[in-house]
């Protein structure tokens, strides 16, 4: 066997030895493995997600002080029902306020009864009946809700019942006429502001998405 052939055999043996040593130190790689740059980017992205998740919820902080008890109650509500949005609730509450207020003034609750708790519906029905017995009628022209803001929030973690109180400032023209057609209350031409604080209730996580009006106040 010539010297060049012997040298090649020795070099090959050394190469095999080095490969086996490297496998023992580094291990083997199967399939796709990201580069160092890709791994660094993934770690940065993960840290960003962690920071966002641990921060305040902008859906809540847009409407309520993060240090308030109301904020803590709302956070607990979202833990039961993550899809809950305070912004969407306030928008819906504004629409409900306008519908219920106009329905009451017009003396017909049929279209809004599903949004009223039984005792509230009973009180409204009684007021409408009393007005009808007196022979009075109401003319109403709702001009819009000028303010909608969260007044309070409470959450019962045992029953998952949430109560949200909303402060409204509406503007409307309301005139109450007697049996002879004379205005006895309000003004048929001059707008007035209507200030109310209404409390809505719902079981968080329930299949029924509707909130019900459970209390009214000024």
Total of DSSP H or I helical runs spanning 4+ residues: 6
Low-confidence stretches: 3-54
Q: Could you give the order of the helices and strands? A: HHHHHHEEEEE
- What general form does the structure show? elongated
CATH fold name of the largest domain: Nuclear Transport Factor 2, Chain: A
Supply the helix-strand structural class.
Answer: alpha+beta
Structurally, how many domains make up the residues? 2
Rounded mean pLDDT is 80
Ends distance: 109 Å
State the major sheet.
Answer: 5 strands, antiparallel
Q: Please tell me the CATH architecture of the largest domain by its name.
A: Roll
Describe this structure in words.
- It contains 6 helices and 5 strands.
- A hairpin with an 8-residue loop joins strand 4 and strand 5.
- It is of the alpha+beta class and 218 residues long.
- The N terminus is likely disordered.
- The chain folds into 2 domains: 52 residues, no CATH class; 155 residues, Roll (Nuclear Transport Factor 2, Chain: A).
- Strands 1, 2, 3, 4 and 5 form a 5-stranded antiparallel sheet that branches.
Structural descriptors:
218 residues; alpha+beta; Nuclear Transport Factor 2, Chain: A; five-stranded antiparallel sheet; 44% helix; elongated; disordered N terminus
């Amino acid at each position: 066997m010539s010297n060049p052939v012997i040298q090649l055999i020795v070099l090959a043996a050394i190469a095999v030895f080095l490969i086996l040593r490297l496998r023992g130190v580094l291990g083997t790689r199967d399939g796709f493995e990201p580069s160092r740059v890709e791994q660094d980017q993934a770690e940065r992205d993960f840290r960003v997600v962690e920071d966002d998740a641990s921060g305040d919820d902008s859906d809540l902080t847009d409407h309520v002080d993060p240090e308030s008890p109301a904020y803590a109650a709302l956070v607990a509500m979202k833990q039961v029902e993550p899809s809950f949005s305070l912004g969407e609730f306030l928008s819906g509450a504004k629409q409900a306020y306008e519908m219920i207020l106009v329905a009451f003034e017009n003396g017909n609750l049929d279209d809004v009864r599903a949004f009223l708790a039984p005792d509230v519906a009973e009180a409204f029905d009684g007021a409408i009946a009393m007005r009808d017995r007196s022979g009075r009628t109401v003319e109403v022209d709702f001009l819009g809700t000028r303010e909608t803001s969260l007044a309070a929030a409470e959450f019962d973690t045992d029953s998952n019942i949430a109560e949200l109180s909303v402060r409204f400032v509406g503007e409307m023209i309301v005139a109450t006429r007697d049996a002879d057609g004379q205005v006895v209350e309000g003004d048929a031409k001059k707008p007035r502001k209507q200030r109310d604080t209404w409390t809505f209730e719902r079981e968080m996580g329930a299949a029924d998405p509707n909130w019900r009006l459970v209390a009214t106040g000024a």
